[in-house]
Design goal:
6-stranded antiparallel sheet, globular, alpha+beta, 21 strands, FAD/NAD(P)-binding domain
Length: 500
């Protein structure tokens, strides 16, 4: 140690000395923790392998194209479109892509209230490509998740986006939880998920030395990706087609039927009273995520049904020196209540956030539809929940779970405890705060979380179709959801004659 310090002092400048000592201290700290409890991998999935494009390399050309002045010949009409899509999250974008693929002459507009696409749920999530374990066989979720995962891997490969098929363990800590592992195995197999295997505690330790559990379901086809980047990439494909106009900072606030049977959408910048923006479209598809119920209400859909309740998922991340604690997705068995699948460990791909391991999310009720922090509060949003009987039914039925989530959101130790159940070496000084995401979940009568995607058709005399519920795994499934929505629209709208 003395020799090391002498070497540093005599050969390096002051600033270099500081960072060098800091690095040594971090390594020393990591080693001392390691010798007591945990073993670290050398790398996370995708690190150090064949060089993938960096974020700047990927986004540089995308940004340049986005801000280039469009060729007026190529740009679609300013205010009338064949189709308008409201909501530039991954569901709206993938649906738009599917329409352009199927109909070579159609023009469309995407209206997005934020200054950029993919900024809400699509930009704040775990980034997991789910294999299809959790969904009822025969459901749309099961079908679109399994198909969507294949399409997502293929899309990332085609566009050279970072993606890793790193696999996942769903761990059971005791015999009772093992029953759930067996159920997931049966369900996943029925859904057509490939490569599933139930493994015992010894095999778990061989795959992940820091995970201690009774048994686990191993899913090799689960992966990781950055959905925000996928969204940016789709948006640019749409722009490049010359048939899609992505209108950002355009919040759709009013929908009217015109005398010639089209839909007029009036809107403008969020919060602002003006200036008013206006477009018309032959048909409209809304994919409003956190606001899907309110938008449906504006279009004339049934606002009393499929009310959205929003939950914040807070993440921690492993500090750089501990980020290789695991190298696969490690999930507990589902917590019940129909809301997300519990605090898990997920390595991230090298896009936007770098190679890290995130730990989370919880599922804490929010006091604002965009409640990214605990104290974000909007009276209208709270009032909506107060008046929502399905929400009360859910909260009362799952009182312990709901309160536990609130407590966990506020208390780091309680949060960590959920992870320590199966990664016992995890300690408070290994993690630092990370980002949070807000998820939309529809609750039906009796407080049951809607367990499938919901599409509402025949709104405004059949001119509008609303996507009402698209919770996880809607990112994984997005390309397949796009196919499903366009299939539904084709059935209802007889597009071949009317849209083109
Ligand atoms: C914490 C968390 C973790 C998750 N983990 C995963 C995961 O690992 N894997 C997975 O597959 N899924 C995951 N999900 C689910 C997934 O992120 C969502 O299901 C998916 O992003 C939904 O996409 P969307 O396009 O419907 O919604 P969003 O991405 O929310 O997009 C809706 C868009 O509509 C816009 N909008 C709303 N109102 C208006 C209006 N009036 N006018 C114009 N625009 C409007 C919004 O600004 C937004 O951009 C997770 C979600 C969360 C929150």
């Amino acid at each position: 140690m003395v020799l090391r310090n002498l070497f540093i002092k005599s050969t390096l400048k002051h600033s270099q000395r500081r960072s060098c000592l800091l690095a040594f201290r971090q390594i020393h700290h990591a080693r001392s923790c390691l010798s007591q409890t945990v073993k670290l991998w050398d790398q996370l999935p995708g690190e150090g392998g064949s060089k993938k494009k960096g974020l700047e390399e990927l986004l540089g050309p995308l940004r340049a194209e986005k801000f280039a002045i469009p060729d007026p010949q190529q740009t679609v009409g300013h205010d009338h479109f064949d189709i308008a899509i409201v909501g530039g999250g991954i569901v709206g974008l993938a649906t738009a892509r599917e329409i352009l693929k199927r109909y070579p002459n159609v023009t469309l507009a995407i209206l997005e209230k934020e200054p950029d696409v993919a900024g809400q749920q699509t930009g704040h999530n775990s980034g997991v490509i789910h294999a299809g374990l959790y969904y009822e066989p025969g459901s749309q979720m099961a079908h679109t998740c399994v198909r969507g995962a294949d399409l997502m891997y293929a899309y990332c490969k085609e566009h050279d986006l970072p993606v890793e098929r790193c696999g996942k363990l769903v761990v059971a800590c005791n015999e009772k939880e093992h029953e759930q592992v067996e159920k997931l195995y049966r369900q996943g197999t029925a859904n057509g998920v490939k490569g599933l295997k139930i493994i015992d505690s010894k095999e778990i330790t061989e795959l992940e030395p820091n995970v201690k559990a009774y048994s686990a379901l191993y899913s090799p086809n689960t992966g990781i990706v950055n959905y925000w980047l996928v969204g940016q990439c789709i948006a640019n494909e749409l722009r490049k087609s010359g048939r899609a106009d992505i209108k950002t900072s355009f919040e759709a606030k009013k929908f009217d039927k015109t005398s010639d049977g089209k839909v007029k959408i009036t809107g403008g910048e969020q919060i602002m009273d003006g200036p008013h923006l206006e477009i018309t479209a032959n048909k409209v598809i809304t994919c409003g995520g956190l606001y899907s119920d309110r938008i449906a209400g504006l279009t004339g859909g049934d606002a009393s049904k499929h009310k959205v309740v929003t939950f914040r998922g807070t993440y921690y991340q492993l500090k750089p020196e501990f980020r290789t604690l695991i190298k696969r997705n490690i999930y507990p068995v589902p917590s019940g209540g129909g809301i997300p699948v519990g605090v898990h460990f997920t390595p991230t791909v090298d896009a936007r956030r770098g190679h890290q391991t995130i730990v989370g999310p919880g599922a804490c009720i929010t006091f604002s539809r965009e409640g990214y922090r605990f104290f974000d509060f909007k009276i209208k949003d709270v009032w909506d929940n107060v008046m929502n009987s399905a929400f009360w039914a859910f909260a009362l039925k799952n009182f312990g779970l709901s309160m536990g989530e609130v407590y966990r959101d506020l208390n780091k130790n309680a949060f960590l405890k959920s992870g320590q159940k199966y990664v016992p070496g995890l300690t408070g000084d290994m993690v630092e705060p990370s980002f949070s995401g807000v998820m939309a979940q529809v609750f039906e009568k009796g407080g049951i979380a809607a367990s499938d995607f919901i599409v509402e058709t025949n709104v405004m005399d059949g001119l509008i179709l609303n996507v009402r519920n698209a919770p996880s795994p809607a990112c994984t499934a997005s390309f397949a959801i796009g196919e499903m929505v366009v299939d539904r629209a084709e059935q209802d709208w007889d597009w071949k004659e009317k849209v083109q």
